[in-house]
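Quick note —
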Amino acid sequence: MAGMDNLDDGATSFLPRTITELRAGYSAQKFIRDLLAGLTVGVVALPLAMAFAIASGTTPERGLFTAIVAGFLISLLGGSRYQIGGPTGAFVVIIYNVIYRHGYDGLVITTLLAGAMLLLFGLCRIGVLIKYIPYPVTTGFTAGIAVLIFSSQMKDFFGLQMDAVPPEFFDKWMAYAEHLGTISTTTLCVAGLALACILATRRFIPRIPAPVVGVAVASLAVWALGLQVETIGSRFGGIPRELPSFVWPTFTFARVRELLPDAMTIALLAGIESLLSCVVADGMTGDKHNSNVELTAQGAANIASVLFGGIPATGAIARTVTNIRSGGQTPVAGMVHALVLVAFVLFLAPLASFIPLASLAAVLIMVSWDMSELHKFLRLLRAPKSDVTVMCLTFVLTVVIDLTVAVYVGVVLAALLFMRRMSEVTAICSCAIDD
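Predicted structure written out below.
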């Protein structure tokens, strides 16, 4: 994975970055910058948290609970100054599949297992090893997930009158084709308006959160014109005006064994996505994060998230970048972002009922475009054949077969590529010595 050399491999301390930053001195000026950055990121995270939860096959408040509980803990306990955690697009596909097959209760057990694995990864100092996941593997993953997210949004974007969308890629598009005659022109116009606002905001006033503008304008248009489109209120009954409560799930050995493969997938994806987000932050700021502390924080945050009604969480690259660009200085900014969402749930939750689902579909279509990183995917097609093969195989497996299979095959391919390159380096060194 490119840029992983920035990892703090030699770190021996498991102290969270929050403690080290506060020990170094925390001024009023830093707090003001953290406060403003946290407010900005909180506003950005609001529509994304709900959109990711809905796309994952659950209710919007579970996305908010995730951003609140996991987002706060990832900042409080993590190994990065700038990391912002919460629900992300990387998990949408696997969460949807788990809920489709095992229900939300199954997802809770799966995430608890994944959280325990992440804690173990961090405590065993495995964070350093994730840097050896080759870039073609991660590119294939993310591009494949982007295609799947895009595919999952056609029902809400076009207002198709159909039941639950099948999780399999080809079955999904066949179902769309069968219901092509049920397209809602009104819903499509609302989705198009939201998408146009997002694109225009990103192009002309990039300092303003584009997803917020798209959702707000679409919601205002639906309310002012009295448009008959599906909203969060009409589908989910709105968002409860209360904070999540603690619920302990019921375990059985058979259930754990059944869900273990999905748990391993979530743990690996969370580790890769979180550390990649940290590396991006390090590259932008010159800072160095502690990978093992970050993994333990991700583990604890995922366990707490589902115990309080959430879904899996990880480091969010786009929100982390927003935090940095907004002037965030310490993990306090991430904690403020979580508290902003708490304030929304307690005081402004009724407003969410007016948000049209088509506008959230438009947000996720833009998320899928950003995730695809098409320019990088196309550039890698000119790389050595082994890299191209690995990337394309991982991409195809992610889209056509199953993300779990793709993760396992990708990790195996990563190990094989690493061994091959090490053997080449060893051969070169041996030749040099012989000469």
